[in-house]
Design a protein that fits this description.
Blueprint lengths: L4 E4 L8 H13 L22 H6 L16 H10 L3 E6 L6 H12 L8 E3 L10 E4 L2 H4 L5 E5 L14 E4 L2 H14 L1
Parallel strand pairs: 1-2, 1-4, 2-3, 4-5, 5-6
Helix pairs in contact: 3-6
Length: 186
């Protein structure tokens, strides 16, 4: 088995940012939007009753990050990948104003085996070199020079991953298996 450099997104792949954001917006503004209603990457489209500024400004509210939880199976799968001898880097577009709080409050808490030097902050993930990227954002996968694993989310469900050279996974068990198959194939 080849030892891979695995790039993993944080929001929506390692932790439940999108679900937490929906719950936070609902509570803050007294609205009732379901996470399944978020059918586009642009969260403002799921909240036509709010201004884009009302939605987007909350990304920098520290209270938003209090509810973050790991995606089920994420910590165990990442630990298994490391135990298999792979390198794992978290590649995230986390806003610099909340990066430390998010790292210390969520990611380091649930993924203590990934030290700070395994985190890469960038807006353009295609610039980061690795063998595979696991991400829920299509814009991060398209055009990258890596194997592409699309982590399913309501806002990417209608996208034909296979036709676009991607492997769609529904959970971390499937992601782990897809990565292991890739490592055995190349």
């Amino acid at each position: 088995m080849k030892k891979l450099t695995i790039l993993v997104d944080a929001d929506g792949v390692l932790e439940n940012f999108s679900e937490t954001w929906v719950a936070y917006l609902n509570k803050k503004y007294g609205v009732n939007v379901s996470h399944d209603d978020v059918r586009e990457w642009d969260m403002t489209k799921a909240y036509p009753m709010l201004t884009p500024e009302q939605v987007l400004s909350t990304e920098r509210d520290s209270e938003l990050y209090d509810g973050l939880q790991p995606i089920p199976g994420g910590p165990e799968a990442i630990k298994r990948l490391l135990d298999d001898g792979h390198e794992v880097f978290v590649v995230t577009n986390t806003h610099y104003k909340i990066a430390i709080e998010k790292l210390e409050g969520t990611l380091f808490k649930y993924y203590p085996f990934l030290p700070w030097k395994q985190y890469v902050f960038t807006h353009k993930k295609q610039m980061v070199k690795g063998d595979v990227l696991v991400d829920d954002g299509l814009h991060n996968l398209i055009g990258g020079d890596y194997e592409k694993i699309l982590f399913s989310a309501p806002y990417n469900r209608d996208f034909d991953a296979k036709a676009n050279g991607m492997t769609r996974v529904e959970n971390w068990d499937e992601a782990y298996n897809a990565i292991t198959e890739l490592a055995n194939r190349i």
